Amino acid sequence: AVFRKENLAASVLAAWDDLIDGLALGARNMIGIGIATATAGIVVGTITLTGLGLMMTELVEFISGGNVILMLILIAAISLVLGMGIPTTANYILVATLMAPVVVDLGAQAGLPIPLIAVHLFVFYFGIMADITPPVGLAAFAAAAISKEDPIATGFQGALYSLRTAILPFVFIFNPAILLIGVDTWPQTIWVATVSLIAILLFSAATMN
Prior knowledge:
The chain is built from 9 helices and no strands. With 209 residues, it is mainly alpha-helical. It has 2 domains: 52-174, no CATH class; 175-209. The longest helix is centred in the first third of the chain and has 43 residues, at 8-50.
């Protein structure tokens, strides 16, 4: 305002009004997240108190038979199914709370140290994938409404394009360097970034029509 030779007091008042409007908008936007988180807390609490969480964990562990890859596939399926009915945030909180420690423990038993952050990102990725996975695919329905195309076909096409997203979580579970875990030098960082970029470009090109 000083350099533009404007009224300083008026500019300060306008900035203050913008700040208040921004805070109000942020508070309104947080309502949905707060409700989703509270709902997830209720669900997690219910599952924990009733013992259903332990049963679910034991069931996944039993079906996988100690196989880390099979357990990850089951957890991915659970995340996709739950993500079709509840918001991504609630889905992430629920599945990560119940399954993340199990994956880390099972990996340790198999001699495969799996970083906890990698498991959390794994769950979060598949929670997001649920938004474009038919038959629900809320994001696919929104995109279909804009493009005036068939929602189910849009969902399947979006899921095809997102195959790299489905494969990536499995990759960084077994190769945490992609998350820059254990990468301590700039040459390592550049190498990981370059290889990852080339790989994702090649895979994207291969899955495009």
